[in-house]
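Continued from yesterday's entry.
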Amino acid sequence: MRPAPGAEATCIAARALGLEADAFPLFAVHPLRWEAPARAEVDALLLGSANALRHGGADLAHYRGLPAYAVGETTAAAARAAGLDVVRTGTGGLQGLLGHIDPAHRRLLRLAGRERISLEIPAHVTVLTREVYASQALPLPGALAARLRTPCLVLLHSAEAARHFARLCDSAGIVRSQIHVTALGPRIAAAAGTGWAGIAAAPTATDAALLALAKELCQGFTPGS
């Protein structure tokens, strides 16, 4: 359900595990115009999505060589490709990363999406946020609607996607009780709501953990369960 190119990357990894998987992105990501702070005002970057690097535009070059804190491996790889020095990669969200900020990095620039989670900022840190991309919710594709009317398992990578997916199912009259949901974390699972055939959260916020959980659930699945 995640936007491209992440959706197809997840499917490729799922197929490598022997799963039958297809991508149905429910969001399209587009860049936003933003004002880049002067490099001298920034000690390090805080990155919660690879989309910030994909859609940040030419102004990202101002920060080449600066330290960066990345929410996960995919974001870290995009940051390195943009010339940033990734000093720490998280596994459980941006809030956890804020507990490991180098004392020398007091002024963080957060490149984020229009929709984002709120953070509790440590007293010794200031965070300047710039919205550099936005996600546009898409309608339910007909092919996906047909799939959802038979027993299946759905992967959800964000709370926004979980809420949107639940609304689409309800609007289309799709019965939740035959859809198994796996989420990238507990917060995302909670956002999906209730009534599903089953709902589970990956133990860590990585695609590898999510797909391992999906494989385990698929192996234990029997029609009608």
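--- second protein ---
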Amino acid sequence: MLQTGDKAPAFSSQNHHGQTVSLSDFQGKNLVLYFYPKDDTPGCTIEANEFTALANEFSAANTVVLGVSKDDCASHQAFIDKFDLTIDLLADTSGELCEAYGVWQLKEKNGVSKMGIVRSTFIADANGKLVSVEYGVNPEGHAQAVLETVKGL
């Protein structure tokens, strides 16, 4: 698992428009990379809506917010359209990004264990260094807490 102070793992993944997005695209900006289990599910919707509501404040703090799940581009676009989301969502259909950030883990629900994305958030500073690493976050109020961290950079 990653830790504060580590270099953010490099990545290239498609966003909801099918455009390739890479870590290097954000040199000189802070980056919030939040991983969530599935488009259009209760917790994931709360989190996406809260990040969208604060999008202008993140932008004013020289910060880009990217959501990541294993859903495909079409699923992401439908999720964005349904809730008028203004953040980019990355389609990690291969799971490479989830593996690199250590969020693909064994999870247990109702006594059943299976692999899945553990809701996690990583904040990288303008030099690509991880200044915050959180695994197993609660979606409610999370975007505001992340914004406060970013404002302190």
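Residues 16 and 76 are 5 Å apart (CA to CA). Residues 12-151 form a domain with the Glutaredoxin fold (CATH 3.40.30.10). Will compare against the first tomorrow.
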